[in-house]
Amino acid sequence: MKNTYINIPIRNVADTDKFFRALGMEKNEQFASDDTTNARINDNTVLMLLEDKRFASFIKQEPKKLEGGFIVSLEFESKEEVDAMFKKAIEAGATDTTNSDTAVNFMYVKSIKDINGHYWEFFVMLGQMPTAEHPAT
Question: Considering the entire predicted model, what is its pTM?
Fold first, then answer.
């Protein structure tokens, strides 16, 4: 595989551009229009953000207004990077959905719901993920 493009329905291009710009994600103007925008997560992963009518043209039906249908999880190098991205998201209008009941000792996680109702996790691995041979303590 070369690249990953994740198509996500949104409500409004201008608001969505502002939100992802606040998170520090670059936009490629070549792949933007009145009803479509984008945000580069990293060198090989791009969010394609399509207003509902445009998104519907790809799937031949109206996108469902589900909240919680999926979670996009982004891994970072440190707790500080996680906290910085989380802070940017909250300041840009996201809602804190971090659940301390699901905390694990091998990960540090902060969670949000973005301005379009989509869920995100920002995390860093703090240690080895448990396996059958090495269960969590």
Answer: 0.84
